[in-house]
Specification:
single chain, about 220 residues, alpha/beta, Rossmann fold, DNA polymerase, domain 1, 2 domains, six-stranded parallel beta sheet, 6 strands
Length: about 220
Amino acid sequence: MQNQTAFIFDLDGVIVDTAKFHFLAWQKLANKIGIDFSEKENEQLKGVSRVKSLEKILSWGNKTLSDQEFQRLMEEKNQDYLNYVQQMSKDDILPGVKSFLDELKSKHHPIALGSASKNAKTILKCVDLNDTFDAIVDGNEVTKAKPNPEVFLKVAKLLNTEPQDCFVFEDSIAGIKAANVGGMISIGIGDKETLREADFCFKNFNEFDYQFFKNIKSKT
């Protein structure tokens, strides 16, 4: 594995567990407008933009909103979410993540964040990882949501790395599809059955180490 090999990380559910905060905020919003919302529905929103998420929720409840009300609810949901996020600290970084990032940096590999979250930089600051990544592309800088590979392809370009030389760490079906469509090596973090389209899948970062990736050739 050459040092031009890049490592790209999703944020929610990979580096930190903010999925629980998204769930609570979306559930509060859905219940407010009379739509049932469980963890099963929440699973379908992972890696999906805020706009698309609200559109999905409305479709499940067969409801329509004016553009003004749609925008207001999105902002309300985001504020509820941020209220949770502001309480985060470096203790909220998921197990094994920090040591893996530190090792990649010590080996001089480019590392980056590719997230649909528009709050990515706020979260990274809260958990003291804002100076860790060589590049950050978040929901404020892309127009196409995962499973479109736009976010990852933009990251690869910023890192001056070919897509086939990139490892992407994702916890969502949409994110794995985006990495695969982009021609990158997809690493699922989570349930192997849910993320069965990933090239490799692990429950968490404690299930592998740097040596594992030395034996993997670029995706061609």
